[in-house]
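TEACHING EXERCISE
Course module: macromolecular assemblies
Task: Read the component lines below, then compare them to the predicted structure of the full complex.
Student: A.B.
Group: 4
Components provided:
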Amino acid sequence: MIEINDLTKQFGDKTAVSHLNMQIKPGEVMGLIGQNGAGKTTTFRMILDFIDPTSGSVRWDGTSMTAEKRQKLGFLPEERGLYQKMSIEDQVLYFAELHGMKRGDARLALRDWMKRLNVVGKPEDKVQSLSKGNAQKIQLIATVIFNPTFLILDEPFSGLDPVNTELMMQEILNLKQQGAMIIFSSHDMAGVEKLSDQLTMLRHGETVLQGAPTEIRESFGRTELYLEAPISSDTLAQIDGVDAIEPQGDGRLLHLSDPESGKTVFKLATQAGYIPAFAQEPPTLDAIFRREVAAGEVK
Amino acid sequence: MQKKQLWIVIRQTFVNRLKTVGYWMLVLTPILILAAIAGINFVVQATQNNTAPKIGVVQNQPLVHYLDKQQLDADIKGYAKTSTANKALADEKIDAVLVEHEQQFTLTKRANGQSIDQKALQSALTQYNTINRAKALQVSDDTLQQLMTPPKMSTHIQSQKGVNKDGANSNAANYGVAVALGILIFMFLTSYVGMIAQEIANEKSSRIMEILLAATSPGVQFFGKIGGIGLLALLHGAIYLILGIIASFWLPKISQLKGVLDMLQGIDWSFALMTMLIVIVSIFLYMVLTAIIAAMVNDLSQVQQAVAPVTYISLIGYILTFVLNGQPHNAFLNILSYVPFVSQTLMPARLGLQYATMTQASIALTLEVMTLYFLSKYGLRVYKRNVLTYREGNITKAALLSLKGLFKAH
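Instructor-supplied answer key:
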């Protein structure tokens, strides 16, 4: 288990991360979200022991980072790095060997991974000949080929098309099912919600939200109401608790200040009988993220 | 585990570079240049007109006989008249006309004629005059022979090791080797300093370093890179050594290179061994220094800026080697020959000239080893501090920031 206790990092008089706490259990995924400069990469660097925290600690099964533990740690940095003039096989095998894997095993595993991720190219091809998407897949393979126990992924989906994002997500879920502890950062809120068991949102180094995505969303109340019904917007606007109405697809999205007002909307909308759509949900993670960012800017 | 990882990094660095054209260019270029020079020399000599110059001597049959007996590398031909000789010269039948008038000689050469060894001719004519004057003074042949025989002189060098009977030869050989080594060491240092800087800067600027350091430690990367590039340098040296040994078997067959071999036979092997040790330690010393500086680089465009000061330092020892000869008591040079980063060329040169003893060379070697130890120890801290830090601005600023707090306990 990974335990981060009261982790703080200051660079001069600037606080990059402030009193961060979290736990990641085996088979659990932690999503780390926040704007650029919120402290995500600094958090990763402290976990990786690249930089020393100003205070607090990072423990892995009760101890700090050791050479043995590093062998079981996979890290995908935000800025991808591969040896451009080296062949795919040479560099994946090099990274795998550094993680204690035998060359022969790594060679077989590489072929399997390339097939699973639909990498266009042969293991003997040089990285510089690959497309950006394929190079990113190779980077992921190099990170996970040795079946890490703990995986740190900094923006794993950036630059990927939806098909490859889906492929990548599936592999992360596979690793989670195999019992890996995973922490990742992303700006793709749908992806974060889909993958994460827990998420932490940072704003200027401060933890502003933490918990399971559904719990976080529910904590904001069911204040988003999608409606497809023969009722005028003026009527809806007069209902207490309806803050705003905006067109969305074939219907309208109502922003409620009081979730209870949904009942009034339902009653009025169904007066004439059947309506095609009525969905009252908590705000999306994306909406919560924007709201929190905006709140930070007001401060 | 760290040892295993260290070996993986060493092997990866070594094998990767070994596969590049650049490395083999570095190894083979000096050999190809030497081969090209030898080839050109061979072709020039093969196509050279080797006919001996023809010298016409006017009205002096005894001189014709005398010069004919000397090893002048010239054909001597007698002419009865000056006009006949001049006509032969004009018709390009001979290359020069030699005329004697009251023991004064005049040599008229054809502008486009074969070259004549004038020093040898002058010496032969001097002897010819001496013999003639001696005969006029009725000096006996034996006495004349005694007068003409030059005295023998052998050189003995009194060094602190004792008397070296073949002093002059050994001295010249060792100094020659030391100067040649100076050039070779400078070439080695600049090449491998550039190589290690390129390796580290490439991994840092492409962020591969972050992946590597997630799996290993800065120490493994630092010493692994130095080990890998160090092995390449040792292989480079070994290739030259093997080629040198192979060449020594067939070089004697080439008459022009016989002199080089004769000189090399004068090498004192204890000198060679000590020089080799000093050079190997210095290569590692320079690589450690470069690795520390290269870790401050943000991108590949700063590599040259980082490597330049290291190259300048190696240049000091290289240049001073050439001014050393004839200055055994120059205190400045003597002190510098013990200073690591400079001693790798100066101390072998002093040792070669027998200005320094083996004990003094051992002190220089010990100082180098100690510096290597401390530079590695403290340098690793600076490397660790910088290798994942990307600063705006130039690397001088990074260097100053790194020095600050260098000796803080970790």
